[in-house]
Design goal:
The protein contains 12 helices and 2 strands. It is mostly helical and about 280 residues long.
């Protein structure tokens, strides 16, 4: 197979562009209204930057030349996947707060109750791991690259699984089922199972995707080296994200514990004061 120059054109499909614009404008309008109402704690600059960073990840994955390169280089396709599964959902959820969600908070709770077992963290783990393995089955992977409708379905699956998975960990509405060491087990089980897929792709003796076998050699990468690079990206990304997320959750748990202790001390002081002044 002859070497070929990489196509680095932007993907200008209207769907992703509209989604990015709606997410940006809708959030900024709500953020400005909350701040105008005086609730700056629920609409900080940090949350705005986190949300916009998440939307930027979507734009990079679906609109930038990365989307075009993903059809030519396995490693670029893997970067696209981790942006949709992890980076975009993480940043966008971190951009939310109870105050920002107030207009739709009741609907969110109603949806969670209606979903029943589907809203349980165990389902999120199964969905995240299941989609990652399913879409890397050779027949499914090659179909996604060969048919645009299947490719859109693949991206939809990854975004859905990513948002559901990270919602249980980072949602501003705290889940009773995700307390103590549960988040550690939740993340470890997921990242180990997905990391194993990355290790398998890295050390597989042969290329397993016929699409790249018959594609032109971009940047001089042969299919085996390209697959190994993609697998390494997956395995390393899973380890790094898990480490950072666990550190974040640990710091957040300490902060919440300290605030709970301070709240209890204030209530105790108020009770003692009321008791001492009682006739």
């Amino acid at each position: 197979m002859l070497a070929a120059a990489a196509d680095t054109s932007f993907s200008l499909a209207p769907g992703p562009i509209v989604i990015v614009l709606v997410l940006t404008v809708g959030y900024v309008v709500r953020w400005r209204r909350v701040r105008a109402a005086g609730s700056t704690r629920g609409a900080t600059w940090g949350r705005l930057l986190a949300w916009l960073g998440g939307v930027l990840c979507l734009a990079v994955a679906l609109i930038s030349p990365l989307d075009t390169l993903a059809d030519q280089v396995f490693a670029m396709h893997m970067i696209q996947h981790v942006l949709l599964l992890d980076f975009a959902p993480i940043l966008m959820i971190l951009g939310l707060s109870k105050v920002l969600l107030r207009p739709i908070a009741r609907q969110v709770l109603d949806v969670e109750r209606a979903l029943g077992p589907i809203a349980h963290p165990a389902f999120a783990v199964a969905l995240y791991v299941g989609f990652m393995w399913l879409w890397h089955v050779p027949a499914m992977y090659d179909a996604a690259l060969s048919h645009s409708a299947v490719h859109v379905l693949e991206h939809t699956c990854f975004l859905t699984a990513g948002f559901l998975y990270w919602w249980h960990l980072l949602s501003p509405v705290r889940s009773r089922s995700m307390t103590g060491l549960t988040p550690v087990a939740y993340m470890a089980s997921t990242k180990v199972l997905v990391g194993l897929l990355g290790i398998f792709l890295t050390f597989a003796p042969d290329s397993i995707y016929s699409f790249y076998e018959h594609a032109p050699r971009v940047w001089g990468l042969n299919p085996g080296d390209d697959q190994a690079l993609a697998g390494a990206i997956m395995a390393i990304e899973q380890s790094v994200v898990m480490g950072i997320a666990l550190a974040f959750l640990f710091v957040r748990a300490l902060d919440e514990s300290e605030r709970e202790q301070q709240r209890a001390e204030r209530l105790e002081d108020a009770h003692d004061a009321a008791t001492s002044t009682a006739p």
